[in-house]
# Entry
Amino acid sequence: MKSSDRDLKKNWKLQQRELARAAFPAANSVLESLFDFVESNVDSHGCNHSLRFTTRWVSEHEQPEKSVLEWLAAHGGNCDCEVVANAANHWEQNR
Ligand SMILES: [Zn+2]
# Structure
């Protein structure tokens, strides 16, 4: 790969990361607390293929449910265990 190609690829990756960050529905500290909460509840109670812990946390913390759930779903978080496995991973890689 030529170095100019490598630069282009690097820039593209940075841009993707910026876009990913811009789409975060809440501050990193807020998302961190969401993922911690859901992860510890899935660890102790398991996932029943719903977003019960996610939605509980969202309503208790008065976060905008629609935008948070849409963002999670867009990154593979369609139930609590997927939130931990997929959406949290997406957030970790781009935060
Ligand atoms: Zn699940």
